[in-house]
């Protein structure tokens, strides 16, 4: 059996027991090449060898690619075997190919093939065939078993790739880590990086209701810098903005150092607070602790499920991977339900996630009349006269569960977190936060049967009758999803705020290159720390 390989791929494949033909072919080639060699001067041998040494790897790669391409072009490797191995245009082997195809099809009816019927490699298969003189049917069965094994391997590799991709979304990139360390160092050595924020003459603005207060909970310095500078650059009256950035204890010094040394506009007030600066009452403290513990237990349960299960990375399971991300354990992430307690002196805030870019003036968002509701949000994608399927409560909550079906309407539209305006005064008059707690507890006690994995569900429940729908152009989300969502240029440009919701954050390597530029535009690449940490465009 021989493969005849040319630059365009496998030309033909013949199986024969006699060697006469091939020896004849082999004989003829040295003769003609000796004749031509004489004509070639010795001086040209070296360039020839050089050219060959360059071209041969190329041919090999070309061949390898052809094999890969043909394997990728078909849904099941079994369907492909016919044309990959036996191109129909070669007359001599076409009968063989037909016969073999029939045998493969016949072997489909003979039930499943055990893996032990397979052989490790194609070479092994051919050797077996020749030495044991097996019939066509045995050959077909073995080929099938081999392809089956390969298919399993490909599937498992795909699953692993999926997990790796998600793991990549969980880690803190080296550049960001470096930025935090360098800025913390700067805080220690540079008095300017420790300067009071805001400057003493502006402190009164922090609680002044005449200013527009924007709240950000984050431990990502670079992301916070992008949100703040994009909001300032697109603001008509930047000096009316007051940013309140809440971060954790370890990020406090780098965050402070950044904003103390990098102000886009000196008239804009930025306040940085670490969680350790809040002095909550014993009651709030214990409730926050409770909440975190429940989130941890829920996380743990999903994690144990995940370890034990054989995953199929579509739909449900993908969502479980999202739930396992570290952000689902992060206190900052869950603290948004305690915003009224975080800012006891404010009655209204605009709340932004750290993975957004502001593209319009935020003042009209601030000015929206919520009509007595607690908060304004964009409904999650609107299709004609209602919300799109997959964007309703029924998609998030388990309506087979009596407690859910008796409390909620499955057709109610869900909304988006990340760009919201909150009336904290109205919020304080409700029991939204305790309702949230109760649903968390219910879910844990019911064995996580109340909702499909995800962080939005308990908020959907707690805020049920308190949401005021705002114009969809305020918030275009899902720029970080996989596969990347395709947005028209107009939609992206018209959006007041774009949101990289999903695992593919723009600061990660896996971030989608099509939209990363929207974010990169607001990163100060001339900053010395960003340069030193090799955070690149
Ligand atoms: C929240 O308050 C409403 C009325 O103010 C009451 O009907 C409801 O039972 C309360 N829910 C919880 C969980 O306390
Ligand atoms: C939904 O609730 C039903 C009824 O309690 C339960 O049997 C089912 O397992 C739940 N589904 C999920 C996905 O948890
Ligand atoms: C970028 O960083 C440099 C150096 O830190 C600073 O001088 C400059 O003002 C910054 N530019 C913007 C737009 O923030």
Care to describe what's here?
- It comes from Cucumis melo.
- InterPro entries: GAUT (IPR029993), Glyco_trans_8 (IPR002495), Nucleotide-diphossugar_trans (IPR029044).
- One of its GO terms (molecular function) is polygalacturonate 4-alpha-galacturonosyltransferase activity.
- It is found in: Golgi apparatus membrane.
- The chain crosses the membrane at residues 45-68.
- The protein is an alpha/beta fold.
- The chain has 3 domains: 1-69, no CATH class; 74-170, no CATH class; 171-378 and 415-430 and 466-532, Spore Coat Polysaccharide Biosynthesis Protein SpsA, Chain A, CATH 3.90.550.10.
- Helices cover 49% and strands 10% of the residues.
- It contains 22 helices and 13 strands.
- The strands form 4 sheets. The chain has a 7-stranded mixed sheet. It has a two-stranded antiparallel ribbon with strand order 1-2.
- A hairpin with a 2-residue loop joins strand 1 (2-6) and strand 2.
- Helix 18 (432-445) packs across helix 19 (456-462).
- The longest helix has 35 residues, at 136-170.
- The protein binds 2-acetamido-2-deoxy-beta-D-glucopyranose (3 copies).
- One 2-acetamido-2-deoxy-beta-D-glucopyranose binds next to loops.
């Amino acid at each position: 059996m021989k493969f005849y390989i040319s630059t365009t791929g496998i030309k033909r494949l013949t199986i024969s027991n006699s060697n006469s033909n091939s020896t004849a072919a082999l004989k003829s080639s040295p003769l003609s090449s000796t004749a031509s060699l004489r004509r070639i001067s010795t001086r040209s041998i070296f360039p020839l060898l050089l050219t060959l040494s360059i071209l041969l790897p190329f041919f090999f790669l070309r061949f390898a690619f052809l094999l890969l391409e043909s394997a990728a072009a078909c849904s099941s490797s079994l369907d492909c075997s016919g044309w990959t191995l036996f191109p129909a245009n070669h007359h001599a082997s076409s009968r063989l190919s037909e016969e073999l195809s029939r045998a493969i099809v016949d072997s489909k009816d003979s039930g499943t093939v055990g893996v032990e019927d397979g052989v490790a490699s194609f070479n092994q298969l051919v050797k077996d065939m020749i030495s044991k003189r097996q019939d066509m049917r045995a050959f077909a069965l073995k080929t099938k078993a081999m392809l089956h094994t390969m298919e399993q391997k490909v599937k498992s590799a795909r699953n692993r790739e999926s997990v790796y991709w998600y793991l990549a979304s969980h880690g803190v990139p080296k550049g960001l880590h470096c930025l935090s360390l360098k800025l913390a160092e700067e805080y220690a050595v540079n008095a300017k990086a420790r300067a009071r924020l805001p400057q003493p003459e502006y402190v009164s603005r922090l609680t002044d209701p005449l200013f527009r207060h924007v709240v950000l909970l984050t431990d990502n310095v670079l992301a916070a810098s992008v949100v703040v500078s994009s909001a300032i650059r697109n603001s008509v009256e930047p000096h009316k903005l007051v940013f309140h950035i809440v971060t954790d204890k370890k990020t406090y010094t780098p965050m402070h150092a950044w904003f103390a040394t990098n102000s886009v506009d000196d008239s804009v007030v930025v306040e940085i607070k670490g969680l350790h600066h809040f002095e909550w009452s014993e009651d709030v403290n214990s409730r926050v602790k409770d909440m975190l513990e429940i989130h941890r237990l829920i996380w743990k349960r999903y994690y144990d499920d995940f370890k034990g299960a054989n995953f199929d990375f579509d739909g449900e399971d993908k969502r479980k991977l999202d739930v396992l991300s570290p952000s689902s354990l992060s206190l900052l992430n869950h603290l948004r339900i305690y915003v009224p307690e975080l800012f006891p002196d404010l009655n209204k805030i605009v709340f932004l996630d750290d993975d957004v870019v502001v593209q319009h003036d935020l003042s009209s968002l601030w000015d929206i009349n919520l009509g007595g509701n607690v908060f304004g949000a964009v409904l999650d994608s609107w299709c004609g006269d209602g919300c799109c399927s997959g964007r309703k409560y029924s998609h998030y909550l388990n309506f087979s569960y009596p407690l859910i079906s008796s409390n909620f309407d499955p057709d109610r539209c869900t909304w988006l977190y990340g760009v919201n305006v909150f009336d904290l005064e109205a919020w304080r008059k409700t029991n939204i936060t305790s309702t949230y707690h109760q649903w968390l507890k219910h879910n844990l006690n019911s064995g996580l049967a109340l909702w499909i994995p995800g962080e939005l569900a308990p908020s959907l429940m707690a805020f049920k009758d308190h949401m005021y729908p705002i114009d969809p152009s305020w918030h275009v989300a899902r720029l970080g999803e996989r596969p990347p969502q395709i947005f028209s240029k107009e939609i992206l440009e018209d959006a007041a705020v774009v949101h990289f919701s999903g695992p593919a954050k723009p600061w990660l390597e896996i971030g989608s290159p099509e939209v990363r530029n929207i974010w990169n535009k607001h990163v100060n690449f001339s900053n010395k720390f960003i340069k030193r940490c090799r955070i690149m465009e």
